[in-house]
DNA sequence: TAACTGTACTACATAAACTAATACGGTTAG
DNA sequence: CTAACCGTATTAGTTTATGTAGTACAGTTA
């Protein structure tokens, strides 16, 4: 199923994350399809289950899959994937920008004001 | 001149970078003003000159100072308008990103948390 | 209850980051 | 021109972070 480079500079779990991302984005793995269990895949690749676990957690954080204890890990609904993935990226960019802006003198109050304004625009004042 | 926290989790050179940034941005150090030499400051702070050097290099890379071998390190010309312009640009980018992120589910609380975190990093927990 | 599932905790090896010791090369006052 | 300043490169040692593995715990289902 996978070809891993065990002695690559790129961590194994990262390779797994990328492989799965590709498969999921290209719809090779359908929504709600079950991924191999951490143990199964680990045995198959002759690596430690915890490495698979780390990859799966990363995929989950990034919104590509969801895991249920005792049941398994599954491909997340596409829209949610996209949004979560995008959001994660956005958060990183946001943090960089915010750091820079705060350093240049942007105040917390200004940012909050900005957010309030945006929320009004986007959500029309709900919440 | 400086108060360093030698056993902070934040690297010494990073603390120095931040202190100098603040001083330069707030015009406490004027344009072309000479910074203490790496050895002088090192002796004063009882740390290694190389640590100062690392801080100075970082400041140079980020455009805050310039160094001349054999002469010293000096505050780089900082045009206030440039900063303001940068800040304005950043604000626009910020607004776009924030709009997108909030649309995707980022909450106001998350952003505020993010800001607090950044402020702590930038100011290094003084007060 | 047995055989699956994900997950938490710990430990260990390795890689990266940080700081220091030393030496080298440019500038300038005397 | 040399002594006393400057920044900088190289190297090494120490600490910290990262990646992986071993083991044990906890939920699910037939």
CATH homologous superfamily designation of the largest domain in chain A: Winged helix-like DNA-binding domain superfamily/Winged helix DNA-binding domain
Rg of chain A, Å, rounded: 19 Å
Number of DSSP helices of chain A? 5
Strands side by side in the biggest sheet of chain A: 1-2
For the largest interface in this structure, which chains are involved and how many residues does each contribute?
A-B, 30 and 30 residues
CATH secondary-structure class of the largest domain in chain A = Mainly Alpha
Q: Which second-level CATH architecture of the largest domain in chain A applies? A: Orthogonal Bundle
**How many beta-strand segments of chain A?**
2
Largest sheet of chain A: 2 strands, antiparallel
Helix content of chain A: 55-70%
CATH topology of the largest domain in chain A: Arc Repressor Mutant, subunit A
Structural class of chain A: mainly alpha
How many structural domains are formed by the residues of chain A? 2
Structural features, described:
2 copies of one chain form a homodimer. With 127 residues, the first copy, chain A, is mostly helical. Chain A has 2 domains: 12-76, Winged helix-like DNA-binding domain superfamily/Winged helix DNA-binding domain (Arc Repressor Mutant, subunit A, Orthogonal Bundle); 79-123. In chain A, 61% of the residues lie in helices and 6% in strands. The first copy, chain A, has helices at 12-25, 38-45, 49-61, 78-103, 108-123, and strands at 65-68, 72-75. Chain A has a two-stranded antiparallel sheet. Chain A starts with 11 loop residues before the first helix and ends with a helix. The relative contact order of chain A is 0.10. At the A-B interface, helix 4 and helix 5 of A face helix 4 and helix 5 of B. The structure holds a DNA duplex (30 and 30 nucleotides).
């Amino acid at each position: 199923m996978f070809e891993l480079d065990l002695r690559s500079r790129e961590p194994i779990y990262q390779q797994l994350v990328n492989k799965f991302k590709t498969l999921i984005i290209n719809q090779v793995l359908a929504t709600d399809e079950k991924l191999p269990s951490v143990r199964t895949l680990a045995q198959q690749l002759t690596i430690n289950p915890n490495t698979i676990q780390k990859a799966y957690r990363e995929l989950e954080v990034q919104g590509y899959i969801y895991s249920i204890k005792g049941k398994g890990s599954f491909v997340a609904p596409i829209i949610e994937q996209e949004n979560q993935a995008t959001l994660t990226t956005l958060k990183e960019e946001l943090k960089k920008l915010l750091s820079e802006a705060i350093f240049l003198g942007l105040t917390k109050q200004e940012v909050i004001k900005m957010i309030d304004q945006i929320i009004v625009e986007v959500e029309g004042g709900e919440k």
